[in-house]
Design brief:
heterodimer, A: 611 residues, mainly alpha, 26 helices, B: 354 residues, mainly beta, four-stranded antiparallel sheet, WD40/YVTN_repeat-like_dom_sf (chain B), WD repeat (chain B), repeat (chain B)
């Protein structure tokens, strides 16, 4: 990795006594947790920490800016649109479409800039106003760089139109032109030139244009030498400028705000048919001449220079270092990747540069309480590590309402992330059970197809029934539908409730066979058999014979199964003895009822029909 | 095509509602309210689409919506209604765990007003009835539902209808004393949660619901327990369904899949069946899929309940120009429609029926 270019900045944590130098920290996905500690070996007494709070330190504050949020949202729409039309981008229209996308991005940046500028003017607090203004200049620089990249890398303007694009570029970014000379430099002559050039794509070839320009240049030179303008020094220097005389141009340094304005003006008058590959020579010399050894190039200058040198990787690298947020480099790199300009050399961690930048950007979005939804789409378009990153991030989104949970689940289901669906549904189902919302808990386990949890919820219902003697939430149990098949316990619950319903409707024979099948088919849990057998008692005691002999035998077998399997108790205590007593009484009653029923059933079945 | 204005507002919009215009007035809607969600500080904002712009050459109004004012809101904004109140009811919805005395607050998921009564439902399965001038709830039905109640609407004044997350519609009559619903309707089969409900403005027995699978169902609450029509609509949860208040043959739905659909069941205009429309609109024809149609009282036939498939075609139009993140909410009033999305944008159109 490269070495840092400068000293790391020191950030003071408010409230923490930094002279004591006792802090602990831990890294998070996009931030750091810091708090004050006090490890004091000498004194044993308890000291109250000077600062009893934990601080979250974030490097990226842009995500929290209200105005920049619009940038993130709008550019997300453009990004997703670009990925979607990728397959349709073929042939000649491809370049035009990509240029259109680039212009869309730039217009979004400009809109943000405008709004922030308005806010900066309207701000009452000067510190706030300064902050907004600096934000405006950062956005302006971003747009400047993007525009240049669009001209050089996406539009790939050839010699000829190249200069026109560069002229537009400079004009867009140079605001102060209030002097006649500056007017001439900025607007009048290019207009003359434009009529001279006509629009690109015409029948004039580059050589024709060059000849014409050469002719005009010679004429200017002749005028200068003849001394036509000797009477007016202004006109004379104007003529020199038009001849591309660098010294004359540099005299007007105050009007040319920066070296790239100087560069383009110089090219306009001396090398209007400059080829793209020659640009960097002129750029470097313009920069040197303009700075004149007084100041050193700023980061922005280096970035622009790298662009003129067609070193895309250097541009991206410098931008990454200079800007505090990954937004710019992520989107620009993605667009350049669509132009097939990035070599696919792999970085250290196995993914290419575009993917790395998108992952970083998207992770930053996930650290935001609200913009995480945008991050999902960015992860989708990272073929290697996107899915895995999404899986890790999406489980950690705090779910405060069901509505939010539903959205997160929908995202997971659309991408077949069954593990995450399961774990989220389980969390929500547990919360519901704790809040005694058994219906909700059941619907969450149905959504996750989680049989184990459905069993848990059913057990709760059955326990409630045993305690209270009646079912709660009948609206749910009565209407389970095919979801009943999710787990055996749930099926049992549904069928048991059906038994009660049949009993209530006095359809005793159906109720009886249902009850029996519940036990013989083994879906009833062992612990519940006693309850089921006790439910059978009233059926056995009815005047008419309900259980057939066969069924009675079955019931007796079940009872024996139950009683024989009972473990021997250890130390009996009073409660246990009482329970045992109740149990024994029940068993005896059952045995008696079963025997009586058997007798009646045998007699009934043995008799002739009709008797 | 209708002009639809989009504006990015730096907050995810969970609800939008037009401010009601006085009945019988010729004014069109010009103010709407929005609520945000998922922010550390949520806001309820009022926006105006009044004459801020200039008249363009067609005589239409230009300019997008402007913020009038906003206030902070604690928690996500789940539902909005307009009424004049002087009260605030906190802790209307809460969870209690068995055996413990503490209460945790539960999200309130829906609210509906019919001056002066206000009904709220929540994730705790509770229904509350408030009056605008009373401090305490007039009536509370605890544990009305074992699952989450997602939405509520008035059927007739003493009756409300709720939908829940196990796919049931329940009708509650406040004149009755018990805590049981007077009627339960549901679709057999998969218990798909229902998220939204709206009643036909003129025919109080016709109700439309939208579910988690994006299915639109039309119900007749007098007839049986099954829906009259099931229409496969969206690919993801349908968040809101609205009948147009003055043109009830038109229905609007919006969904998590990022689309907003206009369902036109009016059968009178033959040119509507033409396939030649201006660009940007995709029109699909769909026949009703009928299930379980009992004998409908013939004198009052709503186009939504009609049985003749050959005669009744519904034209469906998608109103948003590009696919976006989830459209969470929409509202229609007269020729105006407003909707809000998770992409932090609000869309407004003033020429719905152009």
């Amino acid at each position: 990795m490269e070495e840092l270019d400068g000293e790391p900045t020191v950030t003071l944590i408010p409230g923490v006594n930094s002279s004591k130098k006792q802090m602990c920290f831990d890294w998070g996905p996009g931030e750091m947790l810091v708090c004050e500690t006090s490890f004091n070996k000498k004194e044993k007494s308890e000291t109250v920490p000077g600062c009893p709070v934990i601080y979250i330190i974030r490097k990226d504050v842009d995500v929290y800016s209200q105005i920049l949020r619009k940038l993130f949202n709008e550019s997300h729409g453009i990004f997703v649109g670009l990925q979607r039309i990728e397959e349709e981008l073929t042939g000649k229209s491809r370049k035009a479409q990509l240029v259109r996308v680039s212009k869309n991005y730039r217009s979004v940046i400009r809109a943000c800039m405008e709004e922030m500028h308005q806010v900066a003017i309207a701000a009452k607090d000067p510190a706030c106003s300064r902050q907004f203004s600096s934000q405006v200049s950062i956005l302006s620089a971003m747009e400047l760089i993007w525009n240049l990249c669009e001209i050089l890398f996406i539009e790939v303007a050839p010699a000829g139109p190249l200069l026109l694009h560069l002229l537009d570029w400079v004009r867009l970014h140079v605001c102060e032109v209030d002097n006649l000379l500056a007017d001439v430099l900025g607007s009048e002559n290019p207009r003359k030139h434009e009529s001279f050039w006509k629009l690109p794509g015409t029948t004039q070839t580059l050589t024709e244009l060059e000849l014409k320009w050469q002719h005009w240049h010679e004429e200017c030179e002749r005028h200068l030498q003849d001394g036509t303008f000797a009477s007016s020094p202004h006109l004379e220097s104007l003529c020199k400028i038009m001849l591309g005389d660098e010294a004359a141009l540099l005299e007007q340094k105050e009007l040319l705000n920066n070296w790239y304005h100087f560069l383009v003006t110089r090219l306009l008058y001396s090398h209007p048919t400059v080829k793209p590959i020659d640009l960097h020579f002129y750029a470097q010399s313009s920069l040197d001449l303009f700075l004149g050894g007084e100041s050193s190039p700023e980061p922005l200058d280096n970035i622009l220079m790298a662009a003129f040198e067609f070193d895309i990787h250097q541009v991206i690298k410098e931008c990454s270092i200079a800007l505090s947020n990954w937004w710019f480099v992520a989107h620009l790199t993605d667009l350049l990747d669509h132009c097939k300009l990035l070599q696919s050399h792999n970085l250290y961690f196995g993914s290419n540069m575009r993917e790395f930048l998108l992952l970083e950007y998207a992770s930053g979005l996930f650290a935001h309480h609200s913009l995480w939804q945008l991050g999902v789409d960015y992860f989708d378009y990272c073929p290697e590590l996107g899915r895995v990153s999404l899986e890790l991030h999406i489980e950690r989104i705090p779910l405060s309402t069901e509505q939010k949970a539903l959205k997160v689940l929908r995202i997971c289901e659309q991408r077949q992330m069954t593990e995450q669906v399961r774990s989220i549904c389980k969390i929500l189902a547990m919360k519901a059970v704790r809040n005694n919302r058994l219906g909700s808990a059941l619907s969450w386990s149905i959504r996750a197809k989680d049989a184990a949890f459905a069993t848990l919820v059913s057990d709760r219902f059955l326990r409630d029934y045993c305690e209270r003697g009646c079912f709660s939430d009948l609206d749910l149990i009565d209407n389970l539908g095919p979801a009943m098949m999710l787990s055996d316990r749930l099926t049992f619950l549904g069928k048991y409730r059906e038994f009660h319903r049949l009993y209530g409707e006095k359809r005793f024979v159906d109720a009886a066979s249902l009850l029996l099948s519940l036990m013989t088919s083994q879906i009833a849990p062992r612990s519940f058999w006693m309850t089921l057998l006790t439910d059978a008692l009233p059926l056995l005691e009815q005047k008419q014979v309900i259980f057939s002999a066969e069924q009675t035998y079955e019931l007796m077998r079940c009872l024996e199964d139950l009683t024989s399997g009972r473990p021997v108790h250890g130390e009996p205590d009073a409660q246990r003895l009482q329970d045992d007593d109740i149990e024994t009484t029940k068993v005896e009653m059952l045995r008696l009822a079963l025997a009586r029923n058997l007798a009646r059933a045998i007699i009934k079945e043995g008799s002739l029909e009709g008797s | 095509m209708e002009e639809i204005y989009a504006k990015f507002v730096s907050q995810k919009i969970s609800k939008t509602r037009w401010r009601p215009v006085p009945a019988g007035s010729l004014q069109t809607a010009d103010t709407f309210a929005t609520g945000s969600w998922d922010n550390e500080e949520n806001r309820v904002s009022l926006w105006s689409i009044g004459d801020f712009g200039n008249l363009d050459s067609d005589g239409g109004f230009e300019g997008d919506h402007q913020l009038l004012c906003d206030i902070k809101h604690h928690g996500d904004v789940m539902d909005l209604q307009t009424l004049s109140v002087g009260q605030q009811w906190t802790a209307a919805h809460y969870h209690t765990s068995p055996g413990s005395l503490s209460c945790r607050s539960a999200p309130c998921t829906g609210v509906v007003c019919s001056n002066p009564e206000i009904v709220t439902v929540g994730e705790d399965g509770r229904i509350n009835l408030f009056r605008a001038d009373h401090k305490e709830a007039v009536r509370t039905i605890d544990n009305a539902d074992s699952s989450t109640l997602h939405a509520v609407t008035f059927l007739r004044t003493p009756e409300i209808l709720t939908v829940n997350s196990i796919g049931q519609l329940k009708i509650w009559d406040f004149r009755q004393q018990g805590n049981e619903p007077s009627q339960i309707l549901s679709l057999t089969g998969d218990r798909v949660p229902l998220h939204c409900v709206d009643r036909h403005p003129n025919q109080q027995h016709v109700v439309a619901t939208g579910g988690q699978d994006g299915m639109l169902s039309i119900w007749d609450v007098r007839q049986g327990t099954m829906p009259v029509s099931l229409l496969k609509a969206h690919e993801a949860e349908m968040w809101e369904v609205h009948f147009h208040p003055s043109n009830p043959d038109h229905l609007f739905t919006c969904s998590e899949d990022g689309s907003l659909w206009h369902w036109d069941a009016s059968t009178d205009a033959p040119e509507k069946s033409s396939l030649f429309h201006e660009g940007g609109r995709s029109s699909i024809f769909l026949f009703h899929s009928i299930s379980n149609q009992a004998n409908v009282h013939q004198s009052v036939i709503s186009s939504w309940l009609s049985t003749d498939p050959a005669k009744d075609r519904i034209e469906i139009t998608s109103l948003l120009p590009n696919r976006t993140l989830s459209v969470n909410s929409l509202d229609v009033l007269g020729p105006c429609l407003v909707c809000g999305t998770d992409a932090e944008a609000i869309y407004v159109t003033r020429q719905l029926f152009s």
